[in-house]
Amino acid sequence: NKILLFNLIIICFCILNVYSQCNTLLNESFSSFDSAISGGWVTQRRSSPQGTGSWSQALLEEAAARTGARYTYAGVGYESAEVGTGSMISEWLITPAVTINTNSLLTLYRIGNCEPGFNDTLEIRIAYNDSTNVGSTSSSVGDFSTLIDIPSLS
Q1: What are the tens digits of pLDDT across the range 29-44?
Q2: Are the C-beta atoms of residues 128 and 1 closer than 8 Å to each other?
Q3: Of 43, 81, 113, 119, which is least packed with CB atoms within 10 Å of its CB?
Q4: Alpha carbons 90 and 149: distance in angstroms, whole number
Q5: What single DSSP character describes residue 76?
Q6: How many angstroms separate the first and last alpha carbons of the chain?
Q7: Mean of pLDDT values over 58-72
Q8: 18, 105 Cβ separation under 8 angstroms
Q9: What is the pTM of this model?
Q10: Please, what sign has the CA dihedral across residues 154, 85, 148, 20?
């Protein structure tokens, strides 16, 4: 199974841990975003219309990672879509494949600017195959049809 970290607006991650019955299945600190990508993480851009931004190493000067060096997190910003009415930010950060079960625990940390009027939304989705297919539009989800319910981040 692949776990998708799907972003609308500004979402940044410090550390991602996936545990299954006390065994760590995946631990990513994003101390090097390029290393994470070469280690199997995948980004998909479906923002419309596309802007200049995409997932990268540590974006926010005013934000620090939860642990480790200050800029050890992956981030994406509002520049991912052109600013304007009808713009939709849809930036996907997909984990390497991991096998999860009902006892699995996902831990992640979010950094973001939750300014009034900005719809910062995080969705966690699962694909039950070894897929990185997120569909072809800013509102599609491809093979990531299972949405994990998470509390509001506002």
Answers
A1: 888 889 999 999 999 9
A2: yes
A3: 119
A4: 18
A5: E
A6: 28
A7: 67
A8: yes
A9: 0.78
A10: negative
